[in-house]
Fold this sequence. Notes:
CATH architecture of the domain at 5-90 and 161-241 in chain A: 3-Layer(aba) Sandwich
Structural class of chain B: mainly alpha
Helix content of chain A: 25-40%
Number of strands of chain A: 10
Largest sheet of chain B: none
Strand content of chain B: under 5%
Number of helices of chain A: 9
Distance between the termini of chain A: 39 Å
Helix content of chain B: over 70%
Order of helices and strands of chain B: HHHHHHHHHHHH
Number of helices of chain B: 12
Number of strands of chain B: 0
Radius of gyration of chain A: 18 Å
Oligomer: heterodimer
CATH superfamily of chain B: ABC transporter involved in vitamin B12 uptake, BtuC
Strand content of chain A: 25-35%
CATH topology of chain B: ABC transporter involved in vitamin B12 uptake, BtuC
Radius of gyration of chain B: 19 Å
Amino acid sequence: MTKEEALKVEHVSFRYEKENVLEDVTFSVPKGAFLGLVGPNGSGKSTLLKCILGLLKPQQGNIFLFGTPISEFKEWHRVGFVSQKANSFNTGFPATVEEVVASGLTAKLGLFRFFTRKEKDAVKEAIEAVGMTKFQKQNIGELSGGQQQRVFIARAIVSKPELLILDEPTVGVDVHHVQNFYNMLEELNRHLGITLVLVTHDVGTITEKVTHVACLNKHLYFHGKAAEFAELQADDLSAFYGHHLHVLSHQH
Amino acid sequence: MIEAMFQYEFLRNAFFAGVLIGLVAPLLGVFIVVRRLSLIADALSHVTLAGIAASLLMEKKIGLLSWNPLYMGMGFSVAGSLLIEKLRSVYKHYQELAIPIILSGGIGLSVIFISLANGFNTDLFSYLFGSVSAVSRQDVWVIVSIAIVVVATIWFLYKELFLLSFDEEYALASGIRARAIHFVFIVLVALVIAASMRIVGILLVSSLMTLPVAASIRVAKGFKQAIAYSVFFGELSVIAGLFLSYELDLAPGGTIVMLSVCILLITIWWKKWKRG
């Protein structure tokens, strides 16, 4: 295990009752990478994420965050997470964009500590990084799905995590804004140097943005650089998805 | 009433107790309502009744215990809150079931205690519907202590409680001690319910935790503003309610609650009118 790895998953298997959800999954994410973790619905992506976040314990295998086994990992502020359910929150909740983003500092700040100038500046910066400055005093329930998702990303990056994990962040985002959204992620990866793990069932769009790809469907079918993934034949992908598949390339 | 307040100690007691409850009940209420736990207050108030009935029964039958029934009410309320938490983890997919179970259990116990005692005097009645004259100086001190604990806890745990209310899953994933914080919170709720029932009565306690909040979330921008409006509406109904009930010789609990309902209706209309 080198120090250069933000995340390492080693021979991880997970079962719900009798059903195998993950079988012997092994891959790693170098620091500074942008990994697209793709797989069809029900392929175990969300289960794997829960294992990585320490919410589920795999029956077999080990997971390391920054070289530390997650059972001993304490520095959760180094890991940001944007859940798939993030925008299915109670939209009547009376909280402004600022308040929601500031709540991302709760764990890092620790018990009995209060927000100071430094934290307020960090909140401002995070809101700016996702392009939501105009809306900071608005209640989050009044925003569109895509805007809400940006707010949740701001909440995840406000504590300056080194690793940011996103679970299907474009669900509920207007099709026209998806491309913008991916551009913003690319910015976060390139300019702020945040290691990204993006979980999605949408293979086409992300291959141009990510640096690494991992294909999961219980087993790991592919793990490597994005360029190698692009060279894969459509047939290989069909076998992985279990039905015929056309990979569409976008011209920009 | 102001003149009378200088004259009669019980009116001063009721006023102080009312002002404190008008602060702490909506303050906790905001967190309860946004977590969709509004009915917890109802369940706990009925458990509190069981505690009070038990205390009055022991006083009548054994004659040994002449402490303030509020203490046993508080004990039952805290025990009830812990049971609710336990039941919520047993029925993971039917979390709301915990509330009717505890609520009916509370009433069941109360009825048994009351029947065992062959009925009580007007004392019990004052616990059910609240009574200004029933607030003793000792009650005021109990309420003052509870208010200090509640305000200090909310002050120090504000950011954790906010995160837990807004997004429980994220709170857990980010590694904050969600269970411990939730536990502290639910015990506070139990204490405030026991403290509030002197003024508004057991049957109306939950209204002070929910109605001002229901009005506030119609108009507030942001969570801190929601808290500020809730406390403002809570104080407005308690203080105005106490004055009105004294002047018009009405039940204070009912008057306070109906004023909260009026404030709620006004905010709903105001919002509609503003939207045009």
